[in-house]
Write a structure and sequence with these properties.
353 residues; alpha/beta; Nucleotidyltransferase, domain 5; 3 domains; globular
């Protein structure tokens, strides 16, 4: 007798709405429980049979995944952007969880990867570093807007030199804007110290992982990029091929075609001409795309990848497209070395990405 049960959770700050379907797809139970570790654990342990459980990716998904994964046969943290069924018709917690359990029963959910606990500390430190860098950039933009709005010119990053802040503040005649700029300089000084400390913590934690020795062989990837790679990817074996990795990094070329087949003299043939490109894919990991774009910019100026970049320019590619191709090459090399644990060999760079 099939005793599978399909459990969907709609997670909120204070409560979790659940729906349970049996092996035939019929809803056999619904209800609400409190969002507390022991309550959720007791609820799942009280279920009989083979449990398939799902909930959407969100603020509490990592915590719930670690809590419930050992207790069920299957735990899927699904991508809410792909759950189109939830967007149709009326919306409520009960309706959403019923639809989510239906998608689970029909095996129509796309899982979001959640790594093992070995990289959890590095992931948190990487998130902390990224957040502080964004905060620092936001303060710089606000500071720049004050001077630009009053016609005060500057070159490069000289405006952000906190040691010269008194010189720049003296150029502001309005007391209100001068006080605002002074407080922004104070914020910038503190944020720069926090960014430096967060960077050191992240890099120090990344040195505990064996894969760092393999990745640091690629000269266009610095210590920060290597740490972010390990924190984001977790394991290269998530990706079957480089094309899947390109999609995750936002480096996959999107093509749109139609009327792909035709009949010639009674025989079915596929059109030879490829469809037009529509740029790169839009659903990707922002951190990884930044890592490989930065690596491509460095590789186009120096290092073992520069001859490859020069050959692309010699073929007639414009510099922007050549850098995208170089980023794809670096990503492919990174994935290959990471999977195989091999040493970097610049002689193999002549092969196509």
């Amino acid at each position: 007798m099939n005793n599978d049960k399909y459990v969907a959770l709609d997670v909120h700050k204070a409560s979790i709405v659940y729906a349970i379907r049996d092996a035939s797809g019929k809803i056999i139970s619904t209800g609400v429980i409190e969002t507390k570790a022991q309550t959720v654990r007791d609820f799942v342990r009280g279920l009989s049979g083979t449990i398939h459980l799902t909930f959407e990716e969100g603020t509490q998904s990592a915590w719930l995944y670690d809590l419930l994964k050992p207790l069920v046969a299957e735990c899927i943290v699904c991508d809410p952007r792909r759950n189109k069924l939830l967007e149709s018709g009326s919306k409520s917690d009960d309706i959403d969880v019923a639809k989510l359990s239906e998608l689970l029963y029909l095996k129509r959910l796309r899982a979001v990867y959640h790594g093992h606990e070995g990289t959890r500390a590095l992931k948190e430190l990487a998130h902390n570093y990224d957040a502080l860098v964004k905060d620092s950039t936001r303060v710089k933009n606000r500071l720049k807007a004050i001077f630009r709005g009053r016609g005060i010119s500057y070159e490069g990053d000289e405006l952000y030199d906190c040691q010269e802040q008194q010189v720049w503040l003296a150029k502001l005649n309005e007391c209100g804007s001068r006080e605002r700029a002074r407080q922004l300089y104070e914020q910038l000084v503190q944020l720069q110290a926090w960014v430096s400390a967060a960077r050191q913590q992240m890099v120090r934690e990344s040195r505990k992982h064996k894969s760092r020795k393999v990745l640091q062989q690629i000269s266009t990837l610095g210590e920060i990029s290597v740490a972010q790679l390990i924190a984001t990817v977790d394991t290269p074996f998530r990706f079957r091929s480089k094309r899947q990795f390109w999609t995750y990094c936002g480096l996959a070329v999107v093509r749109h075609t139609s009327a792909d087949y035709l009949f010639e003299q009674g025989e079915l043939r596929r059109r030879v001409k490829p469809g037009p490109t529509r740029g790169l894919n839009h659903n990707y990991n922002r951190r990884l795309k930044k890592v490989f774009k930065t690596a491509a910019q460095t590789g186009s100026r120096k290092g073992p990848f520069k001859p490859f970049y020069d050959r692309l320019l010699a073929r007639g590619l414009n510099p922007e497209l050549a850098q995208v191709t170089l980023a794809r090459k670096i990503a492919a090399v990174t994935l290959s070395l990471w999977k195989k644990g091999e040493s970097f060999d610049r002689k193999k760079l002549g092969k196509p990405a």
